Amino acid sequence: MAASSRAGGGSSYAGAAPYRSREGLSTRAVASSDEIQLRIDPMHADFDDEITGLRGQVKLLRNVAQEISTEAKFQRDFLDQLQMTMIKAQAGVKNNIRKLNKNIIKYGSNHIVHVVLFALLLFFVVYMFSKIFKR
Description:
The protein has 135 residues and is mainly alpha-helical.
């Protein structure tokens, strides 16, 4: 009953024949079952060439993975060195700020007055040049 309701004749699935992956592969019905048996025609079996090709691709992928690993190690070492340099620079800046604060406390803070006077003088000079060259 199940075999007579199927379309496609000798195939257990009506649409199985169009889905063959390559020449030489075919499906056939198994008695009263929903299984498919696969038969490989040895005339079209060039699996050795495919295996050789796949081995070549695996070797290429292995080489790429090794290069990626080498680059990752190089980048990690570079970042570690950069981090150490930044730690040293941060410590140097901290020491210099500490020394500057000690000098400001020791000698007073007249430098702020000098900076403000310089800014006012610079503003006045720019203002005068704009008045002179406006004409």
